Amino acid sequence: MKMKRCQVNPACILTIEEPACLFPIMIFNGEEGFSFARYFQKFRGQQRPVPCSQPDADVPVMLTERTIAQRMQKLLAQMAREGYATLIIYGDVEHSGDFEYLTGLMTRFEEGLLVLHADGRAALLVGNENIKLARHCRIPAQVLHGPMLSLPNQPMTGQRPLEELLRDAGVQPYPKTGLVGWKLFTSGDGCNGKRFDLLYFMGDAIRQVAGMDAMENATGLFIGPEGVRRTNTANEIAHYAYGSALASDGVLRAMQAIRPGMRELELGGLLHAHGQRCSVTTICAAGPRYEKGNLYPSARTVALGDPVSLTCGYRGGLASRCAYAVASADQLPPSQRDYVEALSAPYFAALTAWLENIRPGMTGGELYALIQAVLPQKTFRWNLCPGHLTAEEEWLCSLIYAGPAEKLLSGMLIQLDIIPSLPGYAGTGCENGIALADATLRAAIRAEYPQMRQRMQERRQYMLHYLGIRLPEWLMPLSSGVAYLRPYLWDKQRALTYNHDEEECK
């Protein structure tokens, strides 16, 4: 393999539009070729003086009417291909993504149903709390008030059986009625089409109106292999990028503010911003986690040597860090002083490999194989998928696991999410989100959201100049914190970086 010198240093920076040199992707067939494992064993991440990346979230971007119209067209086309006469789409405060996709409404407090017919007619079934919000629905829809969808002990005035409301919404015993909850069942027993995650009283009412034989789990129309929510337009990326950047900004603020004796409560306050609703439980833990089942920041103070976990997420993405509350290795117990060499540096090498090699058109199985080669699961004990799609919810779905032939596509929002565990050490973690964008989508972002595009380009420059990570042109960092990892939180001058050897590129 012919090589050329491609070492990165602050004095020689690639232009931000220039495609990155990629590692040769030859390991996936398990045959001859370049060994990622050998490469990364020899060249690991290292700590260097690095200025902290700066928070840069802008302001929320609303979904346009054009986007809603495109979403409707996509979903109706999927319904036609799959032969659905009607979809019944569930939403609640924890699982509103599919319901929101067309309505723009988060049901808050209570449950709601959206009935969508193949001809585009729609009906909203909402309770007492949401009846006033229904007029703001992003698509034309009949509004039906169902008090039984309300909170306990609220007025039941005007209550009608749910079966009656469903019939008023146009549900009939058609040959095929799709039920959309939030869970994509992926068991290998062949029964997933008849598994439903709507509330029982809803499923029972639908069965009585539509018939059990007609009912099919249709969540795959949204997040399955051809799911309409898997890819995003420029407007959708701008909409979600705000939350991803905001989450990252909060984690960066907390990392910079952390000091000995600081309460978890104070740190937790720094994670949140702009009054936005979190998509996950906020984690701000120093020392042991989950004592007595507690998930939330407490009055515990940060002490020397504590493992610290910081996590915050909004629609569009999550940011997370795990590291030690020390300034240097000699402040750790003797058995943990090789923490960087044993865990953090190999982990950072895996992050680098993930970011520099991910591309539209590669399969999820290929990306999984790459991480397996760089950061062997047997040694580093990561169990979840090393990356997943995100949207309103933190975990939309994932196609990054062993073996799948599903391809990563332009327009996907993907969380870099690898969680290793090495016995005897605290964890390490550096989670943020990115977008994949082909030339057409990049041109749309440049034309429609030039300021967002400029922020993305500045993030690319930072990662190249300071972290040594050369992003391919199709990868758009959704926040300024992507790959910024300090293994020692009190050392605020140094972070992990990657130095490429001259034998990296063809």
Question: How does this structure look, described?
Answer:
With 506 residues, this protein is α+β, with helices and mostly antiparallel strands. The chain has two domains: 36-59 and 230-497, Alpha-Beta Complex (Creatine Amidinohydrolase); 85-217, 3-Layer(aba) Sandwich (Creatine Amidinohydrolase, Chain A, domain 1). It contains 13 helices and 15 strands. The protein has helices at residues 36-42, 65-82, 97-103, 162-168, 200-210, 220-223, 234-257, 264-271, 339-357, 364-374, 377-380, 439-448, 450-467, and strands spanning 46-49, 86-91, 112-117, 122-126, 142-145, 177-180, 215-217, 283-286, 307-314, 317-324, 388-389, 413-416, 429-436, 475-477, 494-497. Strands 8, 9, 10, 11, 12, 13 and 14 form a seven-stranded antiparallel sheet that branches. Helix 7 packs antiparallel against helix 8 (264-271). The protein is globular, with a radius of gyration of 24 Å. Residues 1-39 and 502-506 have low confidence and may be disordered.
